[in-house]
Design a protein that fits this description.
Helix content: 55-70%
Largest sheet: 3 strands, antiparallel
Strand content: 5-15%
Structural class: mainly alpha
Shape: elongated
Number of helices: 6
Distance between the termini: 30 Å
Length: 133
């Protein structure tokens, strides 16, 4: 009884994963773009000295002494252990927020990539006949 249930669930998963393989691949790629957003931004923004200084800065959490990671936009940092947000940085990093562009080059590349993934997925759905099955 339990083996049949597991086998039926496995067959259903295999059926849908082979039928919608393009969408699963695009979903995985979109997840990777969002999960590694700061590393992708660093590859694009490494010529911006202030952004690089914010990304590479080493500050420790005052309560648990773990290394803070960049969060959001400069000069914000987040502690991965206790979840507290902090603002550190030199004057150039703090001034960057006042003169920050509407969208950095890294954000533009990421959003454009996600938009391309969405367009490919929509195009695949509407041209493959998946909706008619």
């Amino acid at each position: 009884m339990l083996e049949e249930l597991i086998r039926d669930i496995w067959q259903t998963i295999l059926k849908y994963s082979t039928q919608y393989y393009v969408l699963i691949l695009l979903l995985l790629l979109a997840y990777l773009v969002m999960a590694f957003r700061y590393r992708i931004d660093y590859l694009v923004m490494k010529d911006d000295v202030v952004w690089r200084r914010w990304y590479k800065a080493v500050f420790l959490c005052p309560s648990c002494h773990r290394r803070l990671r960049p969060d959001g936009h400069p000069p914000n940092y987040l502690c991965p252990k206790c979840g507290n947000s902090f603002t550190f940085g030199d004057k150039a990093v703090k001034e960057w927020t006042k003169h920050r562009p509407l969208m950095t080059k890294g954000e533009f590349i990421r959003y454009l990539t996600l938009l391309v993934f969405l367009a490919i997925g929509a195009l695949w759905i509407f041209t493959s006949g998946v909706l008619h099955n």
